[in-house]
Amino acid sequence: MKINPYQPDQSGMAYSVGTTLDRFIKFKQSDFPFASGELSQLLRDIALAAKIVNRETNRAGLANIGGAFGQTNVQGEEQQKLDVIANIRFMRALSKGGEVCAIVSEEEDAVIDLKNKSGKYVVAIDPLDGSSNIDVNISIGTIFSIYRRKTPLGSPIQMEDIMQPGSEQVAAGYVLYGSSTMLVYTTGFGVNGFTYETSLGEFFLSHPQIKAPKSGKIYSINEGLELDWQEGIKNYIDECKAKRYAARYIGSLVADFHRNLLKGGIYLYPATKNNPNGKLRLLYEANALAFIAEQAGAKATDGKSRILDIVPDSLHQRTPLLIGSEEMVDQAIKHIEKSKISATV
C-alpha cells in the first residue's frame, strides 16, 4: 500500500479561507489552564448570540423590529425594539451554556442570577450599543466583560462577585455590526479581530494581534455639548482643531472606538454640567473597552484615574471616558491637569 504525506495544495484554486474563531479559541485554550474549557465555551456562546443579533439587525427594516419599544430602561433611556431582542438573545445563550452564574445587563435593573451552581463566570454586557442608530442604518455594537466569580462554587452570588474593578477581567470584547460584522476580543494576551463570513456562518481571523497607533489625527466627541465641557477638555479640543485633526463622531461608542483603535485617535465622553459623573457605564462599557485598549497598546482614563483601577460602587455606575492612542490621551490629561492648576491660582 502506497502512503504519501499530506502536502497542502498551493494552486490558486486552493486559497486558504483562514482560521475560524472556534479553531482560534481552541489553539489559545492553553493560555488558561485553570479554565478547563469553560471560558472557551463561553466565548463561543457569545459568538453564537452575535450571529443571531447580526441576522436580526440585517432584517430590521423588513421585519418591523426597528424603532422604539415603548419603554425605558433603568438608565431612563428609551428602549429600542432591537435592544430588547438583543438582550433576550444574549441572555438565552449565556444561560444555556452553563459557564455563567450571573449577568449584568444594561437592559436589566438588577443582577440576573442564573442559579447555575457550577458557573465560574460573571458577564457584564451592553447587548446593543448605539441602537438608536438602527433606523438610519449606522453601525451599532455589543460590548461584553467577563469576570471570574470570587465566592466558592455552589454558594449564592454576592456583591463581591459583581463589583470587581476592570483589572479583574479575564476577557472582554465587542461585536461591531456594520458594513461587515466583526468580533474583537482579548483574554489578556493581545487583541484579535474576526470578520463574519455570512455564506459560511463563521467568524474568521482577519485582524491578528491588533496594535493601536501611538498617536493619530482623529478626535471623537459630541461637540454639541461644548458649552458644558470643563476648561481642560475645551483646551484640548482647541489644540486638536489647531493641528487640523479630523473630527469623527458617529454616536455609536463601538464604531467610534473601533475606528480609532485601528487608525489612531481619541474618543472622549467627559464629565459635563448635566452629567458630572460622566454618561457611559463603567461595568459593561468602559471596562471592556479599556481592557481591549490597553492590550492593544492604547490608554483609557476617566480624566483622573486609570479606568481599570476604578472599583465600582453601583451596578449601573457611570464614568467619564477618554480612550484611544496613548500619546493623545496623555496630552488630553495634561490639559485637564493644567486647567485645574490654573483654577487654584
TrEMBL record:
<comment type="pathway">
    <text>Carbohydrate biosynthesis.</text>
</comment>
<dbReference type="Pfam" id="PF18913">
    <property type="entry name" value="FBPase_C"/>
</dbReference>
<keyword id="KW-0119">Carbohydrate metabolism</keyword>
<feature type="binding site">
    <location>
        <position position="106"/>
    </location>
    <ligand>
        <name>Mg(2+) 1</name>
    </ligand>
</feature>
<feature type="binding site">
    <location>
        <position position="222"/>
    </location>
    <ligand>
        <name>substrate</name>
    </ligand>
</feature>
<dbReference type="Pfam" id="PF00316">
    <property type="entry name" value="FBPase"/>
</dbReference>
<dbReference type="InterPro" id="IPR033391">
    <property type="entry name" value="FBPase_N"/>
</dbReference>
<feature type="binding site">
    <location>
        <position position="249"/>
    </location>
    <ligand>
        <name>substrate</name>
    </ligand>
</feature>
<feature type="binding site">
    <location>
        <position position="126"/>
    </location>
    <ligand>
        <name>Mg(2+) 2</name>
    </ligand>
</feature>
<dbReference type="InterPro" id="IPR044015">
    <property type="entry name" value="FBPase_C_dom"/>
</dbReference>
<keyword id="KW-0479">Metal-binding</keyword>
<keyword id="KW-0963">Cytoplasm</keyword>
<dbReference type="InterPro" id="IPR028343">
    <property type="entry name" value="FBPtase"/>
</dbReference>
<feature type="domain" description="Fructose-1-6-bisphosphatase class I N-terminal">
    <location>
        <begin position="20"/>
        <end position="208"/>
    </location>
</feature>
<dbReference type="InterPro" id="IPR000146">
    <property type="entry name" value="FBPase_class-1"/>
</dbReference>
<feature type="binding site">
    <location>
        <position position="129"/>
    </location>
    <ligand>
        <name>Mg(2+) 2</name>
    </ligand>
</feature>
<feature type="binding site">
    <location>
        <position position="128"/>
    </location>
    <ligand>
        <name>Mg(2+) 1</name>
    </ligand>
</feature>
<feature type="binding site">
    <location>
        <position position="126"/>
    </location>
    <ligand>
        <name>Mg(2+) 1</name>
    </ligand>
</feature>
<dbReference type="GO" id="GO:0042132">
    <property type="term" value="F:fructose 1,6-bisphosphate 1-phosphatase activity"/>
</dbReference>
<comment type="similarity">
    <text>Belongs to the FBPase class 1 family.</text>
</comment>
<feature type="domain" description="Fructose-1-6-bisphosphatase class 1 C-terminal">
    <location>
        <begin position="213"/>
        <end position="334"/>
    </location>
</feature>
<keyword id="KW-0378">Hydrolase</keyword>
<feature type="binding site">
    <location>
        <position position="279"/>
    </location>
    <ligand>
        <name>substrate</name>
    </ligand>
</feature>
<protein>
    <recommendedName>
        <fullName>Fructose-1,6-bisphosphatase class 1</fullName>
        <ecNumber>3.1.3.11</ecNumber>
    </recommendedName>
</protein>
<feature type="binding site">
    <location>
        <begin position="129"/>
        <end position="132"/>
    </location>
    <ligand>
        <name>substrate</name>
    </ligand>
</feature>
<feature type="binding site">
    <location>
        <position position="285"/>
    </location>
    <ligand>
        <name>Mg(2+) 2</name>
    </ligand>
</feature>
<keyword id="KW-0460">Magnesium</keyword>
<comment type="subunit">
    <text>Homotetramer.</text>
</comment>
<feature type="binding site">
    <location>
        <begin position="267"/>
        <end position="269"/>
    </location>
    <ligand>
        <name>substrate</name>
    </ligand>
</feature>
